[in-house]
Amino acid sequence: MQGIKRKLVYVSFYELIAIFITSIALSLLSRHGLAHASVAAVTSSAIAVAWNLVYNALFEHWEARQTKRGRSLLRRVAHAIGFEGGLVAMLVPLFAWWLQISLWDAFVLDLGLIVFFLLYTFVFNLMFDRIFGLPASALQESA
User: Fold this and answer.
1) Distances, alpha carbon 34 to alpha carbons 30, 85, 109, 117, in Å
2) Distance CA 84, CA 64 (A)
3) pLDDT tens digits for 4-25?
4) Torsion angle in degrees (nearest 10) through CA of 67, 54, 9, 39
5) Is the pTM of this model over 0.70?
6) What's the rounded Cα separation, in Å, for the pair 98 and 92?
7) How far apart, in whole angstroms, are the C-alpha atoms of residue 42 and residue 52?
8) Which of 87, 132, 133, 142 has its CA 20 to 30 A from that of 11?
9) Tell me, what DSSP letter sits at residue 138?
């Protein structure tokens, strides 16, 4: 599976799982109920979808220009860290505002989510590539 279809399937599965987990985690880690936490989860998901599309397009553009093809462990780790780092910069202020806590408290709250999502992103990408195959940008060129 390649192109826009791959991206839509990827984003849909990734974000549905993320909304479910984030809603529960934010509810448990804050003094707010599941409904209030779910608003933050859905909003953060919308931000993540936009970031996902932009970040992966940029990453795949860079990846396509590399002489070494494939997705090594180091490349996958760099991908996950870059993606999550961008999300942290956008989501911590959102969580601080919506949950009515300081930026520091929002960052501390988000720390558990940061660690979880680093691992989740890595495992999700690995499993997604195994199920649906590598994108064209990571395939070996035929000689």
Assistant:
1) 10, 26, 16, 20
2) 21
3) 888 889 888 988 988 998 899 8
4) 150
5) no
6) 10
7) 15
8) 142
9) G
